[in-house]
Design a protein that fits this description.
mainly alpha, elongated
């Protein structure tokens, strides 16, 4: 008898859960327009995504992970990418030296866009969500380095629209003719990795503070940079 009662109770709980589920679905159907609006707003913010873990294996990892330099939070701080952090620091100094505004001005401009920059990334680690100062330090270092690489490796017919980066020493490991030939191809490859991207908003904000250039200018730099590809051979030692 007790066993039968237990079965009745179990069936009753299952029916109750079913009824709750039906009520939930009906409620969501009633709010479908609102749900669609929320979903659209949520996904409109995203522009940089992680590669699904299910398709990354030990055999194909190099096809999805940066091997030379990190851009953005997903691979920041990985041991094999750390040597490039020194060069990011040097690039920031050159960028600021040419800029008409101090570091604080650039950081303040980025701070106003901080949440939008964070929202650009899918599944951003909580450490970046909670530590905005650290996030912005990473953004300005990575953003200035990328802009320096782009501008040092592109030319336009309109010389007034492009500042050629010419304040690096001739034997600079990154920003020299040797660097363009032997190092930049690896940086270019890593810039194309899905998980190794920077928001366009970051680059345009930095440029707007420095030279009042717009998104179209950045797009031209990126296009010219990608069209000047050199073949990638065996990985070099970091400078």
């Amino acid at each position: 008898m007790a066993e039968k009662d237990d079965r009745v109770v179990t069936v009753g709980k299952q029916m109750a859960r079913k009824d709750d589920w039906v009520v939930t679905i009906k409620d969501e159907l009633q709010r479908m327009d609102t749900i669609r609006t929320v979903e659209k707003q949520h996904w409109d913010k995203r522009s940089i995504y992680r590669v699904p873990a299910s398709i990354v294996t030990d055999l194909n990892m190099k096809a999805y992970k940066p091997q030379f330099v990190s851009f953005g939070p997903y691979h920041h701080g990985e041991d094999h990418l750390m040597p490039m952090e020194e060069h990011k620091h040097r690039a920031l100094l050159r960028f600021l030296k040419r800029s008409s505004k101090p570091l604080e001005s650039h950081l303040n401009a980025l701070a106003e866009a901080a949440q939008s920059l964070k929202d650009s990334y899918e599944s951003l680690d909580p450490v970046w969500e909670t530590d905005t100062d650290r996030f912005l330090r990473m953004m300005i270092l990575d953003g200035c380095f990328m802009l320096e690489v782009l501008r040092n490796n592109t030319q336009t017919a309109d010389k007034k629209s492009t500042q050629t980066v010419n304040d690096y020493v001739a034997n600079d490991p990154i920003f020299s003719n040797h660097g363009k030939l032997h190092i930049v191809p690896y940086i270019r490859r890593d810039m194309l990795m899905l998980e190794n991207q920077l928001p366009m908003l970051l680059l345009t904000t930095l440029l707007d503070e420095e030279t009042k250039q717009d998104e179209e200018f950045v797009n031209k730099l990126i296009l010219q940079f990608l069209l000047r590809q050199q073949p990638v051979r065996s990985a070099p030692q970091h400078g």
